[in-house]
Batch of 2 targets.
Target 1
Amino acid sequence: QSALTQPASVSGSLGQSITISCTGTSSDVGCYNSVSWYQHHPGKAPKLIISDVNTRPSGVSYRFSGSKSDNTASLTISGLQAEDEGDYYCSSYRNTTSRVFGGGTKLTVL
Amino acid sequence: QVQLQQWGAGLLKPSETLSLTCAVNGESFSEHYWSWIRQPPGRGLEWIGEINHSGSTNYNPSLKSRVTISVDTSRNHFSLKLSSLTAADTAVYYCARLYCSSTSCYFDYWGQGNLVTVSS
């Protein structure tokens, strides 16, 4: 099954804000509020940073926020810090019994 | 605190069957779906499938013909079998908990990951 579409890479300077998009279809992102985002550092397990489109789990920095419009979800990271560098993935329901991830976005902090 | 500990063979030959198991500690096993996810080298995450305590499964349509996920509720374990392996199945495999509310689902706890290499 096809992945959700994310930019391959984004970059930003320390202290700046960046936004990562996640585009799907009316069968996944556009149909449900079940969009989540994950931060992945090499050699570690992915970490949930946003659930339910825009909910931060306990312990996740307020600098991470999520939104959705139609078939596109977005993750915004404000006040970029060096430790934010890594890979970011979105995920959604697809047809209620299937899950799908985005292709991933590599964030570089300059 | 939920902990997932996974294990299984790391080097397999083409046409063989991958077998991984994930043990769940610190949580009511029967309340959630339990998932397998993989990441091939240099590529993104791919959902493989999931199972609940009663054995109800959902699979990625692109892998469904080769995947079997099973559960052992007496040990709070769930397992993945992937048959007819090729080099394209080389990946880090993760187990994860799928937490579902009334409106959404997300993967909130993950295992440490296992690198599985398929090579002759």
Note: Chain A has a mean pLDDT of 95.
Target 2
Amino acid sequence: DSGVTQTPKHLITATGQRVTLRCSPRSGDLSVYWYQQSLDQGLQFLIQYYNGEERAKGNILERFSAQQFPDLHSELNLSSLELGDSALYFCASSVALAAANYGYTFGSGTRLTVV
Amino acid sequence: AQKVTQAQTEISVVEKEDVTLDCVYETRDTTYYLFWYKQPPSGELVFLIRRNSFDEQNEISGRYSWNFQKSTSSFNFTITASQVVDSAVYFCALSGMPGGSQGNLIFGKGTKLSVKP
């Protein structure tokens, strides 16, 4: 157990629907990163939050949004889902904003299948 | 822009063979970090090593070793005496300075290693 908890582990939904993925960071970690792993794009950074504030954005679609709550858990909301959104979504946490100095801890991922 | 290239898409070896996974990176940062992760068939990302740009010492951990060469912007990973349990996808990743999109990890496309008995 890495200490980063992602729920649910698997999710199957239909096109056009909306889903929420949840991430609880490792205890004491303030920084949360979301990544998408798809067959064609590989592992891509989506967005980062640090202590409740958005700090960096990567290749995140406008249909996707995220937030980090006061208890530091984070949610990734995916709406108007398309077949191409099927992917493995990872959350990673780190103790600091300068995460590379301290390392990243990844959750086990949420596998989203859009049918 | 930062970039990580893993030119080997798939490698297949027979157990006990040595295998080297190549990683070439591009960055304009003078301070950066390089990582290797293993993704077994179960899907989780397993951290293997982190190396900062000021430390060019090679590292050995059991059957695993890493060769970091700034002159060629490479951070290669060698598995000695490979085992079936080493079968996985291996990712090389780069992280720059915090802020913007550089504090996160930039991953290569991965190398799928199959070790046959």
Note: The CA atoms of residues 37 and 64 of chain A lie 15 Å apart.
